[in-house]
Amino acid sequence: MGNLSIWHTPNVSAAANISLWGSWASCFCHLSRSKPYVVGANLMTLICEECGIPREDILDHFAKMFLSDFILANHDRHYRNFGLIRNVETLAYTRPAPIYDTGSSLWHDRFTLDGPADYHYTAKPFGTGGMDPKQQIKLFERPEWLDVSRLMGFADEVSELLAENPVMTVARRKAVIKGLQKNIDYITDFL
Question: Which of 47, 48, 122, 173 is the most exposed place for a label (fewest CB within 10 A)?
Fold first, then answer.
């Protein structure tokens, strides 16, 4: 039971000589026991720094991930849904893992999207029991790489993709796009 792989088995790519190590595993392998007063985004940033990943790299990665989650209304970014890449031979951490597991997005679990309350969700992983998504994205400074003008037309592109789903009604697609555009507008105004 003490084996960490019970909680998270890293995905290994022998050809590339790398493995994905989830943040959940990283937390318990490193600082969470030695520095229990450090929590949330600060804990993850400190862990990455101690693993040799530059602070700027991890903060940029977190900003990209959480901005993407905000725009898409992904409410399931818990500690097992992001992580680090490490070399399987040296076990050295090399970089943040690419963004993965965004399946809990676009209000997939909502039966209706009739009013403002239907669009509300709690963002993970930071805060006690999560936090308001608008508060979570404020944890990160305005990223230099973000060109908000590139978000123009994104909701239309998503609408075209959703239109290909034969089981999604037009009303549902319009409601999802309305929420998506609201999130894009918030990012554009906020940043």
Answer: 122
Separation CA 115–CA 61 (nearest Å): 33
Rounded distance between C-alpha atoms, residue 17 and residue 85, angstroms: 10
The two three-digit tokens of residue 190, written as one number: 């906020």
Residue 130 falls in which region: left (phi positive, over 0), alpha (psi -120 to 50) or beta: left
Q: Which two tokens stand for residue 78?
A: 């818990």
Residue with more model confidence, 29 or 72: 72
Instruction: Give yes or no for residue 180 having a pLDDT over 80.
Output: yes
Given a cut of 60, whether residue 3 has pLDDT beyond it is: no
Q: Does residue 94 carry a pLDDT above 60?
A: yes
Instruction: Enumerate residues 6+ apart whose C-beta is below 8 A from 25.
Output: 4, 7, 8, 10, 83
